[in-house]
Amino acid sequence: MKMKKIFLMLLFIPSMALLWGCGDDDDNRNGSGNDQKTVLKEVSTGLPQWTIDMQGDEPTPNWQAPDPSLYENWMIFMVRMQEELTPYVSDDDMLALFINGELRAVNHPAKPADEHLQDDTEATFFILKVLGNEDASQEVEATLKYWSSRLHQTFTVKGKGRFIPEQVKGVDTKFLPDIMLGSSKYPVTAWLNMNFTPEEYGFKRSADDIMGVFIGDECRGINRIYRNGYTDEPRVVVFSKKEGEEARLLYYNATNDRVYDTGKTFKTKAENVTLSLN
């Protein structure tokens, strides 16, 4: 059996994974007709071939590894790559971590790791060793940058935390940062959280149901919303080039093998949006 290649990558700040958490507050709600019952209109049959154009045009970054003789301490972190980015991972990807604006770690090319380190063979991980002279008493600002050689764009996530010398994180507890929300091609990117119960419309949900977000004729968000189990609050990452773009939702029900227009629209913004389809 061909073994799945697993990569390792660093996430320096655990709190980075919380930068784009679910938006449950009323202030995050922004939709048209949230108080009205959604009417689903059939628009086509068969599995839709929706894709998001993630191809960028950025050149390869000139990130140079720091001189280890200048630093006394180190840290190692491991983080799980978001599933949406996993298909694009390659050996030519670059990873870099900046502390207070200074490059402290770079990994190029991305290197495979022993599969026995992971208990989830469907996941992709990265690792990076970070150098520093800070100690645990100092708060630092960290910026993780991931350059995808296949997509030719950089994904960035920022956060604050403390540099704890010789600490290894990300093995016992997995880190899953929303690094794809830092897309350089789509600077206004955030989660769309939905309240949606297909059974209210007489539909049977399945792991193959898909929600698509469209801006004009372009697909800007797609997710198999029930692939991780039963939930009435599915999520989709929405990629937008600027705030205020009007987005609409299409829903594919795999059991019926049909695509439905939900009739719901919302304006994109650089924060999470909650929209009710019930």
In words, what does this structure look like?
The protein is an all-beta fold and 278 residues long. The protein has 2 domains: 21-55 and 185-276, Sandwich (Immunoglobulin-like); 68-182, Immunoglobulin-like. It contains no helices and 15 strands. The protein has strands spanning 41-45, 73-80, 94-99, 102-107, 125-132, 139-148, 153-162, 168-169, 188-195, 210-215, 218-223, 235-240, 246-253, 258-267, 273-276. A 5-stranded antiparallel β-sheet has the order 1-14-13-10-11, with no helix packed on it. It is elongated and about 65 Å long. The N and C termini lie far apart (45 Å).
Question: Which descriptors would you attach to this protein?
Answer:
five-stranded antiparallel beta sheet; Immunoglobulin-like; mainly beta; disordered N terminus; 278 residues; 2 domains
Set out the fold topology.
Elements lengths: L40 E5 L27 E8 L13 E6 L2 E6 L17 E8 L6 E10 L4 E10 L5 E2 L18 E8 L14 E6 L2 E6 L11 E6 L5 E8 L4 E10 L5 E4 L2
Parallel strand pairs: 2-8, 9-15
Antiparallel strand pairs: 1-14, 2-5, 3-4, 3-6, 6-7, 9-12, 10-11, 10-13, 13-14
Shape: elongated
Total strands: the figure is: 15
Low-confidence blocks of residues: 1-35
Would you tell me the overall average pLDDT?
Answer: 81
Number of helices: 0
Main β-sheet, spatial strand arrangement: 1-14-13-10-11
Task: Write down the Rg.
Answer: 20 Å
- Please give the share of residues in helix: under 10%
Structural class given helices, strands, pairing? mainly beta
- CATH level 3 topology of the largest domain: Immunoglobulin-like
